[in-house]
């Protein structure tokens, strides 16, 4: 299968440096095989979001840009994606469209401090599970993650 070329991000770091956190809980159960990927160009946001994911017993990986995620090949392994809307070069909405081509069923949660109503509406029309405003309340993010991971009937 030919993948479309992935845009290079001027902020792209070597792959080993793009992952901020990868965590695996110590006991083996289905929730622990859940991989939630966070894509945000703000390392402190990505880092704290991954800590929250870990507190739920799931694995979390963070990437600084959409291009870094696409280049990693990890997106298809994710159970859920949490994407910032406004990022340089490849924004969250563009990333969502790219990922729908390879894994259309992946649940996406957006969060943003600066997105407008039009971006929020577009994200939800394209199938986002939730759209949260930064700073995101912990309970709101946890509810959105749980909702994204619920099996559809």
CATH top level label: Alpha Beta
Distance between the termini: 30 Å
Question: Could you tell me the number of beta strands?
Answer: 5
Class inferred from helices and paired strands: alpha/beta
Unreliable residue stretches:
10-28
Could you tell me the mean pLDDT?
A: 84
**Integer tally of domains:** 1
Specify the helix fraction band: 25-40%
Order of helices and strands: HEHEHEHEHEH
- Discrete helix count: 6
- What is the approximate shape? globular
Assembly type? single chain
Q: Can you identify the CATH superfamily? A: Response regulator
Strand residues, percent: 15-25%
Largest sheet: 5 strands, parallel
Q: Assign the CATH architecture.
A: 3-Layer(aba) Sandwich
Radius of gyration: 14 Å
CATH topology: Rossmann fold
What does the secondary structure layout of this molecule look like, with pairings?
Elements: H1 15-18, E1 35-39, H2 43-55, E2 59-63, H3 66-72, E3 80-84, H4 92-102, E4 108-112, H5 117-125, E5 130-133, H6 138-149
Parallel strand pairs: 1-2, 1-3, 3-4, 4-5
What does this structure look like?
- It is a single chain.
- This protein is 37% helix and 16% strand.
- It is globular.
- The chain has 153 residues and is of the alpha/beta class.
- Helix 5 links the parallel strand 4 and strand 5 (130-133).
- The chain has one domain (16-148): Rossmann fold (3-Layer(aba) Sandwich), CATH 3.40.50.
- Strands 2-1-3-4-5 form a 5-stranded parallel sheet, sandwiched between helices.
- The chain has helices spanning 15-18, 43-55, 66-72, 92-102, 117-125, 138-149, and strands at residues 35-39, 59-63, 80-84, 108-112, 130-133.
- Mean pLDDT is 84; it is low at 10-28.
- It starts with 14 loop residues before the first helix and ends with a helix.
């Amino acid at each position: 299968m030919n993948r479309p070329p992935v845009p290079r991000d001027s902020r792209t770091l070597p792959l080993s440096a793009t992952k901020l956190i990868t965590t695996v809980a110590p006991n083996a159960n289905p929730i622990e095989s859940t991989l939630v990927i966070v894509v945000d160009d703000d390392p402190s946001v990505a880092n704290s979001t991954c800590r929250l994911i870990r507190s739920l017993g799931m694995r979390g990986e963070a990437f600084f840009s959409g291009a870094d995620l696409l280049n990693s090949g990890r997106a298809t392994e994710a159970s859920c994606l949490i994407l910032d809307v406004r990022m340089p070069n490849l924004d969250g909405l563009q990333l969502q469209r790219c990922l729908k081509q390879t894994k259309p069923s992946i649940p996406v949660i957006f969060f943003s401090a600066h997105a407008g109503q039009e971006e929020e509406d577009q994200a939800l029309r394209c199938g986002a599970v939730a759209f949260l405003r930064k700073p995101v309340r912990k309970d709101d993010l946890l509810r959105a993650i749980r909702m994204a991971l619920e099996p559809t009937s």
